[in-house]
Design brief:
Layout lengths: L7 E6 L4 H10 L24 E2 L4 E7 L6 H21 L4 E3 L2 E3 L1 E7 L4 H13 L5 E3 L4 H13 L3 E5 L4 H9 L7 E3 L12 H9 L9 E7 L2 H16 L3 E2 L3 E3 L7 H9 L4 E5 L3 H13 L5 E5 L7 H5 L7 E2 L8 H14 L5 H21 L4 H10 L2 E2 L4 E2 L28 E5 L2 E6 L15
Amino acid sequence: MKNLKQSNTQARFSPLNRRQFIHTASMLGAAGTLSVYAPGVLGTRDAADIPQNSDLPLKLGVCGPFSGPAKQTGDAIRQGVLMALEDALAAGEAPVTINGELHDIEVIWVDSQSSPEIAVKATTEAIQQQGVKLMVGGWHSSVALALMDITADLNTIHLGHLGASQYIAAKINDDPQRYRGWFKGWPSPPKLAGLYGAPLKYLLEHGLWQPANRRAAILVEDSAFGRGWGEALMLSLKEAGFNPLPFDTAALDQTEFRQLINKYKSEQVSLVAMTSTGDVAVSSFVKQFKELGVKALLLGHGLRWLSNWHEMTGDAANYVVAMDSAMPIALWQRWWVRRFKTKYGKEPTIPAAGFHYDYTRMAIKALNTANSLDFDTLTTIIRQLPYKGVWNYYQFSSAPGPNALSANEVMTGPFMKGFYLPMVQLFDGQAKIIWPIKYAEQRFRQPPWI
Protein backbone atom coordinates (compact mmCIF):
# COMPACT_ATOMS: atom_id res chain seq x y z
CA MET A 1 0.00 0.00 0.00
CA LYS A 2 3.01 2.29 -0.06
CA ASN A 3 2.54 3.09 -3.72
CA LEU A 4 -1.08 3.95 -4.37
CA LYS A 5 -0.29 4.99 -7.93
CA GLN A 6 -0.11 1.37 -8.91
CA SER A 7 -3.31 0.06 -10.47
CA ASN A 8 -4.07 -2.34 -7.66
CA THR A 9 -3.10 -2.30 -4.00
CA GLN A 10 -4.32 -4.61 -1.28
CA ALA A 11 -5.01 -4.81 2.42
CA ARG A 12 -6.36 -7.71 4.46
CA PHE A 13 -8.87 -7.45 7.29
CA SER A 14 -8.90 -10.25 9.81
CA PRO A 15 -9.51 -10.53 13.56
CA LEU A 16 -6.34 -12.64 13.69
CA ASN A 17 -4.39 -9.85 12.00
CA ARG A 18 -5.51 -6.75 13.85
CA ARG A 19 -1.99 -5.33 14.25
CA GLN A 20 -1.52 -5.41 10.47
CA PHE A 21 -5.01 -3.94 9.97
CA ILE A 22 -4.29 -0.94 12.20
CA HIS A 23 -0.90 -0.46 10.54
CA THR A 24 -2.51 -0.53 7.10
CA ALA A 25 -5.14 1.98 8.17
CA SER A 26 -2.53 4.33 9.63
CA MET A 27 -0.56 4.30 6.39
CA LEU A 28 -3.67 5.75 4.73
CA GLY A 29 -4.17 8.41 7.38
CA ALA A 30 -6.74 6.24 9.16
CA ALA A 31 -5.21 5.67 12.60
CA GLY A 32 -7.87 5.30 15.29
CA THR A 33 -9.59 2.92 17.64
CA LEU A 34 -12.12 0.31 16.62
CA SER A 35 -15.77 1.27 17.03
CA VAL A 36 -18.83 -0.86 17.63
CA TYR A 37 -21.10 1.52 15.70
CA ALA A 38 -22.76 -0.57 12.99
CA PRO A 39 -25.88 0.58 11.13
CA GLY A 40 -27.47 -2.37 9.38
CA VAL A 41 -25.61 -4.77 11.67
CA LEU A 42 -26.31 -8.46 11.26
CA GLY A 43 -25.47 -9.10 14.89
CA THR A 44 -22.66 -11.04 16.49
CA ARG A 45 -22.67 -14.81 16.08
CA ASP A 46 -23.31 -17.26 18.91
CA ALA A 47 -20.32 -19.47 19.63
CA ALA A 48 -22.19 -22.61 18.59
CA ASP A 49 -23.02 -21.09 15.21
CA ILE A 50 -19.55 -19.86 14.25
CA PRO A 51 -18.42 -21.51 11.00
CA GLN A 52 -14.96 -22.90 10.48
CA ASN A 53 -12.18 -20.51 9.48
CA SER A 54 -10.85 -20.65 5.96
CA ASP A 55 -7.28 -19.78 5.05
CA LEU A 56 -8.49 -18.23 1.79
CA PRO A 57 -9.50 -14.56 2.05
CA LEU A 58 -12.38 -13.12 0.09
CA LYS A 59 -10.97 -10.49 -2.22
CA LEU A 60 -13.08 -7.35 -2.48
CA GLY A 61 -12.20 -4.96 -5.29
CA VAL A 62 -12.75 -1.27 -4.53
CA CYS A 63 -12.76 1.02 -7.55
CA GLY A 64 -11.80 4.69 -7.34
CA PRO A 65 -9.55 7.47 -8.70
CA PHE A 66 -6.71 6.85 -6.24
CA SER A 67 -4.38 8.92 -8.40
CA GLY A 68 -4.89 11.47 -11.16
CA PRO A 69 -7.07 14.61 -11.35
CA ALA A 70 -9.62 13.36 -8.81
CA LYS A 71 -7.15 11.89 -6.31
CA GLN A 72 -8.76 13.78 -3.41
CA THR A 73 -11.94 11.87 -4.09
CA GLY A 74 -10.02 8.60 -4.20
CA ASP A 75 -8.46 9.37 -0.82
CA ALA A 76 -11.92 9.94 0.66
CA ILE A 77 -13.26 6.72 -0.88
CA ARG A 78 -10.38 4.80 0.67
CA GLN A 79 -11.02 6.35 4.09
CA GLY A 80 -14.73 5.51 3.96
CA VAL A 81 -14.08 1.91 2.96
CA LEU A 82 -11.45 1.41 5.67
CA MET A 83 -13.80 2.83 8.28
CA ALA A 84 -16.58 0.50 7.08
CA LEU A 85 -14.34 -2.56 7.26
CA GLU A 86 -13.13 -1.59 10.70
CA ASP A 87 -16.70 -1.18 11.93
CA ALA A 88 -17.81 -4.44 10.30
CA LEU A 89 -14.95 -6.26 12.00
CA ALA A 90 -15.90 -4.81 15.39
CA ALA A 91 -19.59 -5.63 14.84
CA GLY A 92 -18.96 -9.28 14.03
CA GLU A 93 -19.97 -8.95 10.38
CA ALA A 94 -16.45 -9.78 9.24
CA PRO A 95 -14.99 -12.28 8.51
CA VAL A 96 -17.81 -13.08 6.07
CA THR A 97 -19.48 -16.46 5.83
CA ILE A 98 -19.34 -18.13 2.43
CA ASN A 99 -20.57 -21.72 2.04
CA GLY A 100 -20.38 -22.18 5.79
CA GLU A 101 -16.76 -21.02 6.11
CA LEU A 102 -15.42 -17.77 7.52
CA HIS A 103 -13.29 -15.73 5.14
CA ASP A 104 -11.20 -12.69 5.98
CA ILE A 105 -11.72 -9.72 3.67
CA GLU A 106 -8.78 -8.67 1.54
CA VAL A 107 -9.19 -5.32 -0.22
CA ILE A 108 -7.79 -4.80 -3.71
CA TRP A 109 -7.66 -1.08 -4.49
CA VAL A 110 -8.44 -0.74 -8.20
CA ASP A 111 -7.12 2.65 -9.35
CA SER A 112 -9.06 4.09 -12.29
CA GLN A 113 -6.91 7.26 -12.44
CA SER A 114 -10.12 8.86 -13.80
CA SER A 115 -9.48 7.05 -17.09
CA PRO A 116 -11.87 4.46 -18.60
CA GLU A 117 -9.03 2.70 -20.40
CA ILE A 118 -6.86 2.45 -17.28
CA ALA A 119 -9.86 1.35 -15.21
CA VAL A 120 -10.65 -1.47 -17.63
CA LYS A 121 -7.08 -2.74 -17.49
CA ALA A 122 -6.87 -2.48 -13.70
CA THR A 123 -10.25 -4.17 -13.16
CA THR A 124 -9.43 -7.00 -15.56
CA GLU A 125 -6.16 -7.61 -13.73
CA ALA A 126 -7.89 -7.50 -10.34
CA ILE A 127 -10.47 -10.09 -11.34
CA GLN A 128 -8.42 -12.41 -13.53
CA GLN A 129 -5.01 -12.26 -11.84
CA GLN A 130 -5.70 -11.24 -8.26
CA GLY A 131 -8.91 -13.17 -7.73
CA VAL A 132 -11.38 -10.38 -6.89
CA LYS A 133 -14.84 -11.90 -6.34
CA LEU A 134 -16.93 -8.75 -5.89
CA MET A 135 -16.41 -5.12 -6.95
CA VAL A 136 -17.62 -2.16 -4.90
CA GLY A 137 -17.75 1.57 -5.54
CA GLY A 138 -16.34 3.95 -8.10
CA TRP A 139 -16.73 7.57 -9.14
CA HIS A 140 -16.78 8.58 -12.81
CA SER A 141 -19.66 7.79 -15.18
CA SER A 142 -17.27 7.39 -18.11
CA VAL A 143 -15.39 4.76 -16.12
CA ALA A 144 -18.65 3.03 -15.19
CA LEU A 145 -19.74 2.81 -18.84
CA ALA A 146 -16.45 1.12 -19.70
CA LEU A 147 -16.44 -1.25 -16.72
CA MET A 148 -19.99 -2.50 -17.25
CA ASP A 149 -18.93 -4.68 -20.16
CA ILE A 150 -15.79 -5.98 -18.47
CA THR A 151 -17.61 -7.08 -15.32
CA ALA A 152 -20.41 -8.59 -17.40
CA ASP A 153 -17.91 -10.55 -19.52
CA LEU A 154 -16.09 -11.72 -16.39
CA ASN A 155 -19.34 -12.60 -14.57
CA THR A 156 -18.49 -10.31 -11.66
CA ILE A 157 -20.96 -8.24 -9.64
CA HIS A 158 -20.25 -4.53 -9.17
CA LEU A 159 -22.17 -2.91 -6.31
CA GLY A 160 -22.61 0.81 -5.71
CA HIS A 161 -20.56 2.46 -8.43
CA LEU A 162 -21.45 6.16 -8.12
CA GLY A 163 -21.39 6.88 -11.84
CA ALA A 164 -24.67 8.80 -12.17
CA SER A 165 -25.13 9.34 -15.91
CA GLN A 166 -28.46 8.37 -17.45
CA TYR A 167 -26.42 6.76 -20.25
CA ILE A 168 -25.58 4.01 -17.77
CA ALA A 169 -29.27 3.45 -17.07
CA ALA A 170 -29.98 3.41 -20.81
CA LYS A 171 -27.33 0.74 -21.29
CA ILE A 172 -28.92 -1.40 -18.57
CA ASN A 173 -32.36 -0.93 -20.13
CA ASP A 174 -31.03 -2.01 -23.53
CA ASP A 175 -29.84 -5.37 -22.12
CA PRO A 176 -30.95 -5.91 -18.49
CA GLN A 177 -29.95 -9.58 -18.56
CA ARG A 178 -26.35 -8.84 -19.56
CA TYR A 179 -25.97 -6.06 -16.96
CA ARG A 180 -27.94 -7.69 -14.14
CA GLY A 181 -24.79 -7.70 -11.98
CA TRP A 182 -24.27 -3.94 -12.28
CA PHE A 183 -25.88 -2.09 -9.36
CA LYS A 184 -25.91 1.64 -10.09
CA GLY A 185 -25.21 3.44 -6.84
CA TRP A 186 -26.27 7.00 -7.71
CA PRO A 187 -29.63 7.90 -9.32
CA SER A 188 -29.61 9.32 -12.84
CA PRO A 189 -29.67 13.14 -13.09
CA PRO A 190 -33.27 13.22 -14.44
CA LYS A 191 -34.33 11.53 -11.19
CA LEU A 192 -32.24 13.56 -8.74
CA ALA A 193 -29.05 15.57 -9.35
CA GLY A 194 -30.42 17.58 -12.26
CA LEU A 195 -33.62 18.62 -10.49
CA TYR A 196 -32.64 22.13 -9.43
CA GLY A 197 -35.69 23.69 -11.05
CA ALA A 198 -38.11 23.10 -8.16
CA PRO A 199 -36.01 24.62 -5.33
CA LEU A 200 -34.95 27.58 -7.50
CA LYS A 201 -38.59 28.21 -8.43
CA TYR A 202 -39.44 28.16 -4.71
CA LEU A 203 -36.83 30.85 -4.04
CA LEU A 204 -38.30 33.00 -6.81
CA GLU A 205 -41.93 32.57 -5.78
CA HIS A 206 -41.19 33.48 -2.16
CA GLY A 207 -39.20 36.57 -3.08
CA LEU A 208 -35.97 35.21 -1.62
CA TRP A 209 -34.16 35.49 -4.95
CA GLN A 210 -34.86 38.43 -7.25
CA PRO A 211 -32.78 38.01 -10.41
CA ALA A 212 -32.85 40.51 -13.28
CA ASN A 213 -34.04 37.80 -15.69
CA ARG A 214 -34.43 34.06 -16.10
CA ARG A 215 -31.45 33.47 -18.39
CA ALA A 216 -29.09 30.72 -17.28
CA ALA A 217 -25.66 29.47 -18.40
CA ILE A 218 -24.47 25.92 -17.79
CA LEU A 219 -20.92 24.51 -17.81
CA VAL A 220 -20.27 20.77 -17.46
CA GLU A 221 -17.21 18.58 -17.55
CA ASP A 222 -16.67 16.91 -20.91
CA SER A 223 -17.79 13.44 -19.87
CA ALA A 224 -20.82 11.17 -19.80
CA PHE A 225 -21.69 12.45 -16.33
CA GLY A 226 -21.29 16.10 -17.32
CA ARG A 227 -23.36 15.90 -20.48
CA GLY A 228 -26.06 13.85 -18.79
CA TRP A 229 -26.26 16.33 -15.91
CA GLY A 230 -26.38 19.23 -18.35
CA GLU A 231 -29.26 17.70 -20.29
CA ALA A 232 -31.25 16.98 -17.13
CA LEU A 233 -30.58 20.44 -15.69
CA MET A 234 -31.65 22.22 -18.87
CA LEU A 235 -34.96 20.36 -18.85
CA SER A 236 -35.53 21.02 -15.14
CA LEU A 237 -34.77 24.73 -15.53
CA LYS A 238 -37.07 25.07 -18.55
CA GLU A 239 -39.90 23.42 -16.62
CA ALA A 240 -39.35 25.97 -13.83
CA GLY A 241 -39.59 28.91 -16.23
CA PHE A 242 -35.91 29.58 -16.93
CA ASN A 243 -34.28 30.17 -20.30
CA PRO A 244 -31.05 28.15 -20.24
CA LEU A 245 -28.41 28.55 -22.94
CA PRO A 246 -26.96 25.39 -24.52
CA PHE A 247 -24.44 23.98 -22.08
CA ASP A 248 -20.70 24.40 -22.52
CA THR A 249 -18.13 21.69 -21.77
CA ALA A 250 -14.68 21.78 -20.17
CA ALA A 251 -11.95 19.19 -19.67
CA LEU A 252 -11.63 17.50 -16.32
CA ASP A 253 -8.26 19.17 -15.70
CA GLN A 254 -9.06 22.61 -17.16
CA THR A 255 -8.07 25.55 -14.98
CA GLU A 256 -8.67 28.67 -17.13
CA PHE A 257 -12.29 29.82 -17.49
CA ARG A 258 -12.11 33.62 -17.76
CA GLN A 259 -13.00 33.81 -21.45
CA LEU A 260 -16.06 31.64 -20.90
CA ILE A 261 -17.13 33.55 -17.78
CA ASN A 262 -16.83 36.85 -19.65
CA LYS A 263 -19.11 35.40 -22.31
CA TYR A 264 -21.67 34.69 -19.58
CA LYS A 265 -21.32 38.29 -18.40
CA SER A 266 -22.00 39.58 -21.90
CA GLU A 267 -25.07 37.34 -22.10
CA GLN A 268 -26.27 38.98 -18.86
CA VAL A 269 -27.30 35.66 -17.33
CA SER A 270 -28.76 35.61 -13.82
CA LEU A 271 -27.82 32.00 -13.05
CA VAL A 272 -24.57 30.15 -13.77
CA ALA A 273 -24.58 26.42 -13.08
CA MET A 274 -21.46 24.30 -13.32
CA THR A 275 -20.25 20.84 -12.42
CA SER A 276 -16.94 18.98 -12.55
CA THR A 277 -15.34 16.07 -10.75
CA GLY A 278 -11.87 17.55 -11.31
CA ASP A 279 -10.29 18.76 -8.07
CA VAL A 280 -8.72 21.90 -9.53
CA ALA A 281 -11.25 22.63 -12.29
CA VAL A 282 -14.20 23.28 -10.01
CA SER A 283 -12.26 25.42 -7.52
CA SER A 284 -10.66 27.43 -10.33
CA PHE A 285 -14.04 28.21 -11.85
CA VAL A 286 -15.48 29.36 -8.53
CA LYS A 287 -12.55 31.72 -7.87
CA GLN A 288 -12.61 33.18 -11.38
CA PHE A 289 -16.38 33.65 -11.22
CA LYS A 290 -15.92 35.81 -8.11
CA GLU A 291 -12.90 37.61 -9.58
CA LEU A 292 -14.79 38.73 -12.69
CA GLY A 293 -17.81 39.98 -10.75
CA VAL A 294 -20.60 38.13 -12.54
CA LYS A 295 -23.96 39.47 -11.39
CA ALA A 296 -25.51 36.03 -11.11
CA LEU A 297 -26.19 33.27 -8.62
CA LEU A 298 -23.63 30.45 -8.86
CA LEU A 299 -24.80 26.87 -8.68
CA GLY A 300 -21.70 24.81 -7.89
CA HIS A 301 -22.63 21.14 -8.26
CA GLY A 302 -19.77 19.00 -6.97
CA LEU A 303 -17.74 21.68 -5.22
CA ARG A 304 -18.27 19.91 -1.89
CA TRP A 305 -16.89 16.69 -3.31
CA LEU A 306 -13.49 18.20 -2.46
CA SER A 307 -12.58 17.68 1.18
CA ASN A 308 -10.72 21.02 1.23
CA TRP A 309 -13.14 23.00 -0.93
CA HIS A 310 -13.07 26.03 1.38
CA GLU A 311 -9.28 26.04 1.53
CA MET A 312 -9.16 25.98 -2.27
CA THR A 313 -11.82 28.66 -2.86
CA GLY A 314 -11.86 30.91 0.25
CA ASP A 315 -14.72 33.39 0.36
CA ALA A 316 -15.31 32.96 -3.39
CA ALA A 317 -17.57 30.04 -2.48
CA ASN A 318 -19.82 32.19 -0.29
CA TYR A 319 -23.44 32.25 -1.52
CA VAL A 320 -22.93 29.23 -3.81
CA VAL A 321 -25.89 26.84 -3.83
CA ALA A 322 -25.65 23.10 -4.45
CA MET A 323 -27.65 19.90 -4.21
CA ASP A 324 -24.77 17.44 -4.56
CA SER A 325 -24.34 15.67 -1.23
CA ALA A 326 -26.17 14.21 1.73
CA MET A 327 -26.15 16.27 4.91
CA PRO A 328 -25.94 15.22 8.58
CA ILE A 329 -29.60 15.73 9.42
CA ALA A 330 -30.11 12.88 11.91
CA LEU A 331 -28.19 12.39 15.15
CA TRP A 332 -26.57 9.16 13.96
CA GLN A 333 -25.26 10.99 10.89
CA ARG A 334 -23.75 13.73 13.06
CA TRP A 335 -22.18 11.04 15.20
CA TRP A 336 -20.65 9.42 12.11
CA VAL A 337 -19.21 12.78 11.02
CA ARG A 338 -17.76 13.30 14.50
CA ARG A 339 -16.13 9.86 14.42
CA PHE A 340 -14.73 10.49 10.96
CA LYS A 341 -13.24 13.84 12.02
CA THR A 342 -11.68 12.24 15.10
CA LYS A 343 -10.26 9.44 13.00
CA TYR A 344 -8.95 11.38 10.01
CA GLY A 345 -8.63 14.94 11.34
CA LYS A 346 -10.90 16.54 8.73
CA GLU A 347 -14.48 16.85 7.56
CA PRO A 348 -15.72 13.96 5.39
CA THR A 349 -16.78 14.38 1.79
CA ILE A 350 -19.98 12.47 2.25
CA PRO A 351 -20.55 11.14 -1.29
CA ALA A 352 -17.01 9.77 -1.55
CA ALA A 353 -16.40 8.66 2.04
CA GLY A 354 -19.94 8.25 3.37
CA PHE A 355 -21.64 6.55 0.44
CA HIS A 356 -18.70 4.16 -0.01
CA TYR A 357 -18.89 3.41 3.69
CA ASP A 358 -22.53 2.45 3.25
CA TYR A 359 -22.03 0.38 0.10
CA THR A 360 -19.13 -1.51 1.69
CA ARG A 361 -21.28 -2.39 4.69
CA MET A 362 -24.12 -3.34 2.33
CA ALA A 363 -21.79 -5.62 0.36
CA ILE A 364 -20.73 -7.39 3.54
CA LYS A 365 -24.33 -7.83 4.62
CA ALA A 366 -25.26 -9.24 1.21
CA LEU A 367 -22.37 -11.71 1.30
CA ASN A 368 -23.31 -12.96 4.75
CA THR A 369 -26.99 -13.20 3.81
CA ALA A 370 -26.31 -15.07 0.57
CA ASN A 371 -23.66 -17.32 2.18
CA SER A 372 -22.51 -17.78 -1.40
CA LEU A 373 -20.52 -16.24 -4.23
CA ASP A 374 -22.83 -17.71 -6.84
CA PHE A 375 -23.57 -14.90 -9.29
CA ASP A 376 -27.33 -15.38 -9.56
CA THR A 377 -27.79 -16.00 -5.84
CA LEU A 378 -25.87 -12.88 -4.88
CA THR A 379 -27.55 -10.64 -7.47
CA THR A 380 -30.96 -11.79 -6.24
CA ILE A 381 -30.01 -11.04 -2.62
CA ILE A 382 -28.72 -7.56 -3.47
CA ARG A 383 -31.83 -6.72 -5.47
CA GLN A 384 -34.18 -7.97 -2.76
CA LEU A 385 -32.25 -6.71 0.27
CA PRO A 386 -33.00 -3.08 1.19
CA TYR A 387 -30.26 -1.57 3.31
CA LYS A 388 -30.61 1.29 5.77
CA GLY A 389 -27.20 2.87 5.79
CA VAL A 390 -25.88 5.90 7.60
CA TRP A 391 -26.65 8.28 4.73
CA ASN A 392 -29.47 6.78 2.69
CA TYR A 393 -31.96 3.97 2.42
CA TYR A 394 -30.62 1.86 -0.44
CA GLN A 395 -32.93 -0.24 -2.57
CA PHE A 396 -32.37 -1.16 -6.18
CA SER A 397 -35.20 -0.97 -8.65
CA SER A 398 -36.44 -4.05 -10.48
CA ALA A 399 -37.50 -1.96 -13.50
CA PRO A 400 -37.69 1.66 -14.71
CA GLY A 401 -40.17 3.68 -12.69
CA PRO A 402 -40.84 6.98 -10.92
CA ASN A 403 -37.86 6.56 -8.57
CA ALA A 404 -35.31 5.00 -10.91
CA LEU A 405 -34.49 5.27 -14.60
CA SER A 406 -33.57 1.59 -15.00
CA ALA A 407 -33.47 -1.76 -13.31
CA ASN A 408 -30.63 -2.05 -10.78
CA GLU A 409 -30.52 1.71 -10.20
CA VAL A 410 -30.72 2.84 -6.58
CA MET A 411 -34.12 4.41 -5.96
CA THR A 412 -34.75 8.01 -4.92
CA GLY A 413 -37.08 8.91 -2.08
CA PRO A 414 -37.60 11.23 0.90
CA PHE A 415 -35.01 11.43 3.65
CA MET A 416 -34.01 7.89 4.77
CA LYS A 417 -36.71 6.38 2.55
CA GLY A 418 -34.56 6.43 -0.55
CA PHE A 419 -31.53 8.20 -2.03
CA TYR A 420 -31.89 11.84 -1.01
CA LEU A 421 -29.95 15.13 -1.38
CA PRO A 422 -31.09 18.52 0.07
CA MET A 423 -30.10 21.94 -1.29
CA VAL A 424 -27.50 23.90 0.67
CA GLN A 425 -25.91 27.33 0.55
CA LEU A 426 -22.25 27.84 1.41
CA PHE A 427 -20.85 30.42 3.82
CA ASP A 428 -17.37 30.63 5.37
CA GLY A 429 -16.60 26.97 4.83
CA GLN A 430 -19.98 25.72 6.08
CA ALA A 431 -22.90 24.25 4.16
CA LYS A 432 -26.37 25.08 5.49
CA ILE A 433 -29.57 23.41 4.29
CA ILE A 434 -31.98 25.89 2.70
CA TRP A 435 -34.42 23.46 1.01
CA PRO A 436 -36.66 21.55 1.67
CA ILE A 437 -37.96 23.91 4.33
CA LYS A 438 -38.64 20.95 6.60
CA TYR A 439 -34.90 20.49 7.11
CA ALA A 440 -33.74 24.07 6.52
CA GLU A 441 -31.04 25.42 8.84
CA GLN A 442 -31.34 28.94 7.49
CA ARG A 443 -33.11 30.93 4.76
CA PHE A 444 -31.55 31.46 1.37
CA ARG A 445 -29.47 34.66 1.26
CA GLN A 446 -29.36 36.49 -2.05
CA PRO A 447 -25.80 37.45 -3.06
CA PRO A 448 -25.30 41.21 -2.54
CA TRP A 449 -24.01 41.70 -6.10
CA ILE A 450 -27.35 40.69 -7.66
